[in-house]
Fold these 4 entries.
Entry 1:
Amino acid sequence: MRSSPYQKDLINGEMMINLSVPARMVLASMPVLAVTAFPSVAAAAAPRTADLAFEWRPTVTDVSYVGGMGARAYVQAFATNVGTSAAPGVTFHFTPPPGATMDPAENEPFGWTCDTSDPVWACTNGRTVEAGAFEYLNLSVLLPAGTVGDTVAMRGSVSTTAAERSLRNNGGETTFRYVVPRPADIAVNSVSVVPSYQVKAGEQFDVYVELDNIGGSPADDVTVRVPLPPTVRPASLDPEYPGWSCAEADGAVTCARDSAYDISQPYNLLRLRLVAGPGTPDGPLVLTATAATTSPELSSENNVAQGGTVYLAEGVMSGHAWLDNDRDGLRDPDEPSAYGKVGKIEFVLEGTEPTWDVPRGYLDEQGTYSTRLKPGRYVANVYLMDGLPYEFTTPDAGDDALDSDVVGSTGGYYNRGWSAVVDVTDAGETVVDIGLAPVA
């Protein structure tokens, strides 16, 4: 029997392959093949986990040693999911310095709910942070007064309702430093008038003054003064916004802040309700607001602002046109209106000729008319309907409330009458009555 290049032996119950010398020499001369190791099924199914990494991103960490609004620090808590699975129910936790406060409502518009009733504050928004995504919370912390140069620490952390790969990166600490603040700086940002387009005599309008303390320290004894034109008076001295009280003296309204005006102060508006009287100059009505404080300021150049509206000065020309059937020159109770008999009424400034855009008046069914006019001296031209069998009655026959004010006419087929020169005053009413008598 011919020998095989290998033989089988059974050793300890196992099949063993013994290579002969020639076989070993053949294998040794073959190139070496690389063997790739594939992961096991268990390794490929390794669980995915969330992993939140927390960091502080300070914005303003130097605060006023005086305290108040100047000791407000602005920081951002930032959490990135560096894991491989989503992180639901993300919550920020903060351990503030003793005496520090936060307004939980500041972040409500952004979907956050913050509980500051416990020593450790908690803020959540109910959202889920996917793997590779991030979440942040802008936080403003109001610190108590301190000592210049001292620092206070605030601890922050983040959590999720899911299991995390690591908790070592879930927290961090930031510090706030007390410094000497910059001086106060009261700035009048704007003066706006409502309505801004037009007001008339006797109409109320509102003046809103917007200001702010853009410095670093509170400002004491802050006042805002608005001089009034001679024809303008206050309709109300209620500033509408808390913290202010207003009074009129020496031709101006002055509003005083009831307490120190801190930086980032709420209620940065005050309102003056005014009314313009007759005789106010026609055209722009400008109001100037000037702020002052007894505290040192960074700058006083921003303490003044102006705003305005447009005053429309106008009066009214009105009258009654009737048929003076008994030709006595007086309007009797039973005499009818002249509706349908008068074509138009023109109001022409003294010394001028009528133009295409001259103001006009027209009778209603009761025989009355009313037209608003700029203050001035006018002549009323009255045009009768062509060929009408009526003429203008005798003027100024007696009671001015009942007689006719048309003092002359052309007569004829195209009959035009006219009044004497009359004055129209701002907010006043001038009457020109028109009596028509049957042609005899």
Note: The mean pLDDT is 89.
Entry 2:
Amino acid sequence: MNNLSSSKEYGTMPAQDPAIADLVARIQKLKQERGAVILAHNYQVGDVQDVADLVGDSLELARWAATGSAPVILFCGVHFMAETAKILNPSRRVIVPDLDAGCPMADMITPEEVDRLRAEHPGAVVVTYVNSPAAVKAKSDICCTSANAVKIVNSIPESVPVIFIPDQFLGDFVQRQTGRNLILFRGFCPTHMRIMAKDIHQAKEEHPDALVLAHPECQPDVAMIADVVTSTSKMATEVRNFSGQTVIVGTETGMIHRLQKENPGKSFVAACTTCDCANMKVNSLEKILWALEDMAPEIEIPEEIRLPASQALQRMLDIA
């Protein structure tokens, strides 16, 4: 249950444990030998973020994956993110610490559902949030992330209907920002669903001068009372530019590690102390080391899926 009566306030970074330091040293050595780069999403545990070469949101990581040159990508996130890296880099090896790092939202949408929506709305453009399986991206016209969804939808002529999948709350946010009526699928992120407006109000009472950040995957009543609703990468920018001391963070709790590390003079309050994604958290330093040792598990995507999915992702990157 999420509540802010026991909200956690984040301050200074802890010292690194010697056992962790040893693991990190072994990972760094093996990474050099393998020619690997480690990418980590903002929701990973702190130790995983700290060992990564790049920490970012889906758009930042997708951009890097499309332009980087390392022969091996070790992707620390959830399965659809590693798939995206492989879609954009068919000749490079993409490995993950744990194949069981899935995404409940991504599992809510199937290629068959996309076919059904297209049949019900002929002529509509299918805009697909990157939080989706490769096979769904392959059925889509263009992809988006939380950072560029408004821009992507605005790039489509107003006379053309838009099917937005799979996140209904990101879709609702885009509707309010663009003034468009979108055809929304009823998917959602279970982690962001647990962030409640009443808890934001309570946090504001305890920290009246705080900046309130919320992810657009949050429910609309949360987005309505936040100071800024944006992607995690843009949250980092907002915090850097904020002249105040305290920030209330309405997203998965792993984001606070990055914000705390980049802004040691500021304090952070989790809008929901239990809003951590169990799927993101299955990755660990030990699993990173094992993946580099075995060069597995490896992501493979059939060309009949990869090619059309790549087109949908590239259209997004061209616009974003």
Note: The mean pLDDT is 93.
Entry 3:
Amino acid sequence: MAEWHLRPGHLTLSELRHLLAGRARLSIEPAFWPAVEASAAAVAAAVERGEPAYGINTGFGKLAKVHIANDQLERLQLNLVRSHAVGVGEWLDDATVRLVLALKAASLARGASGVRRELIEALLALYNAGVLPCVPSQGSVGASGDLAPLAHLTLALLGEGEVRIDGRVVPAAEGLRHAGLEPMALAAKEGLALLNGTQVSTALAIRALFEAEDVFAAAVVTGALSVDAARGSDAPFDPRVQALRGQPGQSDVAAVYRRLLDGSGIRASHRVNDERVQDPYSLRCQPQVMGACLDLIRNAGRTLLIEANAVTDNPLVFEDSGEVISGGNFHAEPVALAADTLALAIAETGALSERRIALLIDATLSGLPPFLVREPGLNSGFMMAHVTAAALASENKSLAHPASVDSLPTSANQEDHVSMATFAARRLLPMCANTRRIVAIELLAAAQGIDFHAPLQTSEPLQAVHLALREQVAALDEDRVLATDIAAADALLASEILTPMVADLLPSWRPE
């Protein structure tokens, strides 16, 4: 496995994709270690002076006025970790935990957290050895960062709790041995630095961002296929129309639709004698709706990239002056709002896809056989597949309710406004799965519609999509169990087969 030097504060989205996959052994760029060592020395000097400094020689939260004696500082950090390990629910998946480890190490290595070099190297050792702490997914309100989940992550460094190695759950002490580590004793400030921070909510949101990009790409390609299946017009995708609106996402997406439909024999066959003046919105307004979704995805990506590179623990140590300043960088509002906007984009992508399915099965709108099957009545065709799509779209509408508007004060009103960022981010992957399955049903329906136009053919790019599906799923000649077909189409989309197509047609479609 290749060696990869992390440059804290300079990570790219492309690098974060690799970090999720665990494709390299990580280390910190050597130039960053002097700042780390200087900030750790600044904390040691603050302890020596005995001046009150939050979390270094005081209690936490509402107990910040309680002074802790120097001989109790190690115990203070241990108690902090244990008392905050109150998470519940299913464990975070391996990829997310891997990214959390990398983000936490990179944040601490910026030299503003006052931790020792060996602590950062221990986090990287866990990542490199594939020793992934078992982290419950519930219990954080995104206030002083992701306290509960990060406490469970930190427990592993102490030899407590459980870890996963290649999917096998073992005691943390065994995991440390596998990584070549001994249980750590945390120095002043280190437990607080590990627990404060937005790395869990950020990792969850970044993982969902990448899923949302793939689902978005699939929906654009499938939407173009639906245009041809319904004998729709490509005139609404004219660049002059988009230019008069001026929205960047709209213009970019319209260009993709034009290129996907270019050369379609189906479109050419009805270009002259088509009596329809306008297509329904689910076909005609795809650039406007999907372009707006793309703008949200891009903006969320920019916010989350900034957060991935940020220092978000508290207090912060400024090694040049020796100051220790208590601030609020742990408040995860930027992540919460980015996750909420991603939720809107994901839900709208699925909602528009569901409307196109409804159009395709409606003979009065599509001109295709009712429910996309020969001998309707005897066969129900795609009638119930559309019901599944409607159920998933409706579920996403509930999940898309903004999490960030719900603040419930904690810590005896010391933390009197919280972000709910962890839930805001955590609900995104299930939403992506719902939308991908809606698009999978649309892909099946659109391909069925294309079959009815034979011997006319769609464009070359869309022919390739149609062929890829038909290699997995046969056309529907008569009723059969469509759940199997939906699962196959869903797996095809989950393989990210359509993402490169959109990336090739629009290289700038997502920030790196």
Note: The chain has a mean pLDDT of 93.
Entry 4:
Amino acid sequence: MFTGSMVALATPMYADGSLDWESLRSLVEWHIEQGTRALVAVGTTGESATLDVHEHVEMIRRVVDQVAGRIPVIAGTGANSTTEAIDLTENAARCGADACLLVTPYYNKPSQEGLYQHYLAIARAVAIPQILYNVPARTAVDMLPDTVKRLATIGNIVGIKEATGDLTRARELLDILPEGFAVYSGDDSTALELMLMGGHGDISVTANVAPAAVAQMCETALAGDAATAQAIDQRIQILHKVLFLESNPIPVKWALREMGRIDGGIRLPLTSLSPQHHATVREALRSAGIL
């Protein structure tokens, strides 16, 4: 089982939108040094929606090669076409990814039975461990706990990233899912509470800019040391908020540029962080001890 802080890795780009492989290499090394427990490549924060298939697969391959087995690599391979999701998942497996993260099909709004059949088809097609990803605020479809429970009986579906931020939903999932099926937070603001309830880790946006703090918060929470985990989380709570002042990954990529970690390019239809938010994000980075 994958546990702890799993960074939803931003994809470095130059100002013209081309991929910056050298910055990617540096980011991977930094995360490993800072205690990140797994890297999630080409998820929402990685701008999967605007990478073409070749770039998507190449990003996974380069992260896997750079990591070289030191920590797990989880590849984002979800799509609103089941056939495309299978193809991306097959490619991730060939690249050597340790698992895949599959967002619910967006825009076409499948039924709960459609969601079940979608994930069943991918699991049957590719043997790699697979993590479900529920983020209805982005996809316009909510995978309900009963559907997750059905899918949890499939051997290579091993967990879910629950990004609703609803702790009542998280509690229900933890109560009904079989032992050994991982429940991960996809919402930094409530990740600590979810782990203290019995969750298994945080697939984190905040960890892009504060990897050591998020890693330490996760480790202490998973060890049951609530007081230490809460003290760490209190120091970075401001980041959980300001990194969503505009659509993710707009603020986090601006913050990484401010930190000198990446060039800061981002692809349309996303644009760089609005100037009125610059001082707020900069002050949050200072408050968290990053700048």
Note: The longest strand covers residues 157-162.
